[in-house]
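Example A, followed by Example B.
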Amino acid sequence: MTTAATESIDIASEVQTDGYAIVEDVLSRQQVDDLLHALECIGDTGSVRKRGGIFAVRNLLDESAEVRELAGSDAIRALVEPILGAHFFPVRGILFDKIPDANWKVPWHQDVIIAVRERVEAEGFGPWSMKADVLHVQPPAAILERMLTVRLHLDPCGEENGALRVLPGSHIRGKIPEDEIASLRASLPEEVCAVGLGGALLMRPLLLHASSPSRVPGHRRVVHLDYASVQLPNGMLWFSEPVSIQV
């Protein structure tokens, strides 16, 4: 008989080997509906992007108490702890939606930028940039290797509506120069990460991934939560106030 502990070990092994894992039914239909209602109540701020409807909200941990609560919930903790260990915390939340007026294509890339409160010079950090009035920076790969992304799907998401495509195993190669991505695509098999409503995609930031525009009308809402198990050097702070998760 498969136990929850065995499933956690299997998921952690998948993430270690492939750089990602899919876990279905993390949230119930009612939890999804409650979260959607909370997201609809977010007001107009610099972190909310609209084009015929809201299609992105940055700084989601600061904009929504409900998302902050979800980020520290038992259900999410059970997914993250086997991968990052007991001492981890959420550092960023983003809402993504692909709607007819904002149906974008995302080319192959790694997630190599983090949000911080203020500029502090530290070895290996840079370049720096501003997004939605928040300072962002590329940290060394060693920081990104101690992070995990949890993408919670508030709509069913398959290949027809812009599911992520990934190159399994690419996360172990550190930061990959852009001119080497094409050769990796030729040598590694591509996988489509279809996830059902309420399911979660766990993903290492350094995993090469992309997505196509949705081919069907409607929503593809995803709450993207980044977790870290490392503090930043020289007094540098993550932008979203770390919330310790006790175990």
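Example B, a separate protein, is given below in the same form.
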Amino acid sequence: MPDKNISFYLRKINPVDKIAHYNQLFTEYLQQNTRVPEPKNLYEPIDYILKLGGKRIRPILTLIGAEIFGATPEEALPAALAIEIFHNFSLVHDDIMDAAPLRRGKDTVHTKWDTNTGILSGDAMLIQAYQCFEIYDAKLFSQLVKLFSNTALEVCEGQQYDIDFETRNDVSTNEYLKMITYKTSVLVGCAFQMGAIIANQTKEAQKEIYKYGKLLGIAFQIQDDYLDAFGDPETFGKQVGGDIIENKKTFLFLKAKELGNSSQKEQLHQLFSNKDQVDTNGKITITKQIFNESGASEATKKAIQEYTEQAFEVAKKLDIPNESKEMLINFGTYLMNRRV
């Protein structure tokens, strides 16, 4: 692809400003394409969760995926909106299952309204996500919906694995990695691949950018697990220690079980065998101490770095201009340096 096809924003603006540009572009599109018709009790919760903010990482990936392959980000906006609506739909239902009180520092939908509203509004969001693809021609529509449907089902499978792990004491690291691949990273890969589809790229190019996204998504989720335990509650936007309270078998937990001494392993077993403990703050404090003293915290940070570097190796081999490769690497670096 000749360099002249690379947009001004890919060539000239630093990574933080590029992301800010993509975010503004997408946010304006989101505002233009969301409304609150009757019945308001169905649509107000949708409007609420979509406008809570966040970095809107996944739709930005779709815009990047389109632009690095020569399409305009504007062409990818409907697909990006589908990704964002679906992601938020999954969050609404996840929060219900996790009984989570906060999302992005605000009340979750089921807390602000009620559980039934959260379920029904989430269902409507899934339908709205599919409607976003209707703007594309038949060929693109078919490719996008097929990828989206496969990904959406994998996300559901990943969520079920996550739930199953809460009551198991024999979860392996490989099982955990499969779970987060399905629950989180396939959607990151999907977002990038949608951009490639819109840019009419070959199957091989689509496969490689998907692989880049999937590896980056694994690093992103392991980092998210780390931040859940050690993030700043003022910036993280969710209840810090929520995974510990819910007995989630995160990478931190599994590494602590692997690296810890017999006393630490037994203590973790006791802490994670009872979901209804009254002293949740004490549980979080003790668990974090075990994570640190066992070496699990350092092992987790090392894994984040390793998956990020694997993603960068894929990016370097893509058949795209060097400026585009640099964009992917800079974006990944920015993403892995986040604290929220």
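On Example B: Strands lie at 102-103, 106-107.
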